[in-house]
Specification:
By secondary structure, this protein is an alpha/beta fold. It is built from 5 helices and 5 strands, in the order αββααβαββα. A 5-stranded mixed β-sheet has the order 2-1-3-4-5. Helix 4 links the parallel strand 3 and strand 4. It is globular and about 45 Å long. The protein starts with a helix and ends with a helix.
Length: 146
């Protein structure tokens, strides 16, 4: 199921246009309840990360601010802002594709979802379809450098 959901997140990332191609889906009981892609450039909004948009959509659909019982699948390891949002939303699990050695906060640079200073812990797992997720980002940045 992890690979299936990550493929949906990858499909979502393909819609990013000029934005860094990151896609995210929120799943509960095996059903996708929300999906989004980065819209920072499109919306002129530094907060329009795929993870935040998908979690906001899921909260609205479920009518709650807590995403207990949900898993977030995202193509790139969450940044500090998004890792904090995982904790604040009370999401159970985050599964990501590519690791982010510069800004990743679900184990690479820092492990915010497991910091004992916070009440909630989010289980995180990286490397699902890592090559495909990293490849999408590499192609995007190679194209930008041209």
């Amino acid at each position: 199921m992890q690979e299936k959901m990550m493929r949906i997140a990858l499909d979502e990332a393909e819609h990013c246009g000029e934005d860094v191609p990151v896609g995210a889906v929120v799943v509960r009981d095996g059903e996708v309840i929300a999906s989004a892609h980065n819209r920072r450039e499109a919306d002129c909004d530094p907060f329009a990360h795929a993870e935040l948009l998908a979690m906001r959509q899921a909260c609205q659909k479920l009518g709650t601010r807590r995403l207990k019982g949900c898993t977030l699948y995202v193509t790139l390891e969450p940044c500090p802002m998004c890792a904090g949002a995982l904790v604040m939303a009370g999401i159970d699990r985050c599964v990501f594709g590519a690791y982010d050695p510069r800004q990743g906060c679900c184990g690479s640079v820092y492990d915010l979802p497991h910091d004992p200073a916070f009440y909630h812990r989010t289980q995180c797992e990286g490397g699902v379809l890592e090559e495909q997720c990293a490849g999408l980002l590499q192609r995007f940045f190679a194209q930008r450098r041209k």
